[in-house]
Design a protein that fits this description.
It is a single chain. The protein has 185 residues and is an alpha/beta fold. The protein has a single domain, classed as Rossmann fold (3-Layer(aba) Sandwich), CATH 3.40.50.360. Helices cover 44% and strands 19% of the residues. The chain has 7 helices and 6 strands. Strands 1, 2, 3, 4, 5 and 6 form a 6-stranded mixed beta sheet that branches. The C terminus is likely disordered.
Length: 185
């Protein structure tokens, strides 16, 4: 199966999540392309799409929403998955928090019907080089016990677990007759 993993922005949190999802899917034997949404010119030839964005002001970024609108005619239930990286998950866990976060992707679900949604916290990103000193701040937080390396491993494990389950859903979608590959755009 050929899978596109795409994300809003040119780097940062969504890119890191997309890369990790791509590595898991590749490790499971799939042909994976990871690209920023701005680099996607067609969906022709892909059997499945994973699209992601950071949460910005309580919703996906404008770039990510535009991407979904642009390709809404080719997304089908069995072969689209989305992920959102948001601050809300790290500070307030539980069902109530998840319901709030699901509102961030309501406009996406109004356009397309993803087979799966992943929600991940933005609070743990040791590779975030977007602001000066963020990497040092991360290391100091670990050093002083404010943030534990196990928190980072937990977040990475959550992404990897979601991607593994997603692989199974995509494979099931292909077996049950989902359109393959994407045509027309």
């Amino acid at each position: 199966m050929k899978i596109l993993v795409t994300y809003a922005g040119s780097g940062g949190l969504a890119a890191g999540t997309a890369e990790r999802v791509g590595k898991v899917l590749s490790g499971l034997g799939e042909i994976v392309t990871v690209l920023p949404m701005s680099g996607v010119t067609t969906l022709i030839g892909y059997d499945a799409v994973v699209a992601g964005s950071i949460e910005q002001a309580g919703q996906w970024t404008p770039e990510a929403l535009d991407f979904v609108r642009r390709y809404q005619g080719v997304f089908w239930t069995e072969q689209l998955a989305i992920f959102t990286v948001c601050h809300s998950l790290g500070s307030d866990k539980g069902a109530e928090s998840r319901m709030v976060v699901m509102q961030y992707t309501a406009p996406v679900r109004a356009i397309a019907h993803p087979v799966s949604e992943g929600f991940f916290s933005d609070e743990i990103d040791p590779d975030n080089d977007t602001k000066p000193g963020e990497r040092s701040k991360f290391k100091l937080n670990i050093l002083f016990g404010i943030l534990k390396e196990s928190d980072l491993r937990h977040q990475q494990a959550a992404i990897e677990t979601w991607a593994t389950k997603l692989h199974d859903k995509f494979a099931h979608g292909m077996q049950s007759g989902a359109k393959s590959p994407v045509h027309g755009v």
